[in-house]
Write a structure and sequence with these properties.
- This protein is 33% helix and 19% strand.
- By secondary structure, it is α+β, with helices and mostly antiparallel strands.
- Strands 1, 2, 3, 4, 5, 6, 7, 10, 11, 12, 13, 14 and 15 form a 13-stranded mixed sheet that branches. Strands 8-9 form a two-stranded antiparallel ribbon.
- Helix 1 packs antiparallel against helix 4 and helix 6 packs antiparallel against helix 8.
- The two termini are 32 Å apart.
Length: 353
């Protein structure tokens, strides 16, 4: 969790190379999208960059995973060609698997709409609306100053920052799924986040009784991810009546205590979070220092929660709502979400004297 430390300059992002290449693709896609908008659309689509003052920065740090106005230009208010350019920008911040997963989550709004009886509400014509995913650019793409972009809607929040021509932050990164599982023809089931859930459960169930007793913090799961949508995380954060709290000291079992099979499962589970973004963008993680914690049942279909925590890493998962058929997952850098550390370094270097 956030502590009073000197900014580290984006330790979760790999060195120069992929970060510059991805930043270039982001800038080209963002510029093309903005250029194709009319003035009224652009007024919603673009805001001042991270150097634009406290008001602009407060807007950039606002994020959600609820079905609400996320700030920006929604896809539903764009023409098809504009939507295509918008999704091109979204794709630049995701791996192939990450992009497919996000698109599938957006499509689940149609499934949820039907499951809930096609309700009205929320002050709009259609409550569960796949057109209500919002894109906003902060600053001038490819310009000399820091800039970034955010894409969000129900169960999706992507936050990206570019500083000095390099991607410096890709978190918070939230992906959820409701329903977590839905029937398919032929007896199958659509589980958009199913592999992530299965990896975590397989890992905790593979532990020896002694290690599992330490990994499973509680026999009941919290009602949601504990970090919620806080822009900054602090030691001891917890919602009323929810446990276990977030702590600077990781809880659970460390990767260094696992056997080779357990380490392989932990590495695969980590990849389900860090692999959301393009290859080579995130620096390697010391698996030995990553801790696994679990709460709730280890039986499929029952409410459960898991957490991965290590240096510059917090990943949370919960599936508790709607009969444990409503999954939330988030990847965060508690010390540098939104690139706050990289921005501090940039300002210190460019505003000396």
């Amino acid at each position: 969790m956030t502590t009073d430390r000197t900014p580290g300059g984006g330790a979760m992002i790999a060195g120069e190379g992929a970060d510059r290449a991805v930043a270039g693709r982001m800038a080209a896609a963002a510029s093309a999208w903005l250029a194709g908008l009319d003035p009224d659309q652009r007024a919603l689509a673009q805001r001042a960059g991270p150097s634009g003052g406290p008001g602009a920065e407060a807007e950039r740090l606002r994020w959600s995973y609820l079905p609400t106005d996320h700030g920006g230009l929604p896809l539903g208010r764009q023409r098809p060609a504009q939507q295509s350019l918008a999704m091109r920008l979204v794709s630049t911040g995701l791996s192939d698997a990450g992009y497919v997963t996000v698109c599938a989550v957006m499509g689940l709004e149609n499934v949820l709409d039907g499951a809930e009886g096609f309700p009205r509400g929320g002050g709009r014509e259609r409550y569960r609306d796949p057109g209500l995913y919002y894109l906003r650019v902060f600053g001038e793409p490819g310009g000399p100053g820091p800039w970034g972009w955010r894409f969000g809607g129900h169960h999706v929040s992507l936050n990206n920052l570019v500083v000095d021509g390099r991607v410096r932050a890709v978190t918070p990164c939230f992906i959820g799924a409701n329903p977590a599982a839905a029937p398919l023809l032929g007896g199958g089931s659509l589980r958009v986040l199913g592999p992530t859930e299965d990896l975590a459960r397989d890992l905790v169930r593979s532990l020896s009784p002694a290690l599992r007793a330490r990994a499973v913090l509680l026999d009941r799961a919290p009602s949601d991810i504990v970090s919620r949508n806080r822009p900054r995380l602090f030691d001891g954060d917890v919602e009323p009546d929810d446990e276990p709290p977030l702590t600077v000291q990781p809880q659970g079992v460390a990767g260094s205590e696992l056997d080779s099979a357990g380490r392989a499962l932990l590495e695969a589970l980590l990849a389900a979070y860090l692999g959301r973004v393009p290859d080579g963008l995130v620096a390697p993680v010391d698996v030995d220092a990553v801790h696994l914690a679990w709460a709730g049942s280890t039986e499929p279909g029952r409410p459960h929660y898991h957490r991965l925590q290590g240096p510059r890493l917090l990943a949370e998962w919960d599936d508790t709502q709607d009969g444990a058929n409503h999954a939330h997952s988030v990847w965060r850098d508690p010390e540098a979400d939104f690139g706050l550390d990289a921005l501090a370094v940039h300002r210190a270097e460019h505003h000396r004297g």
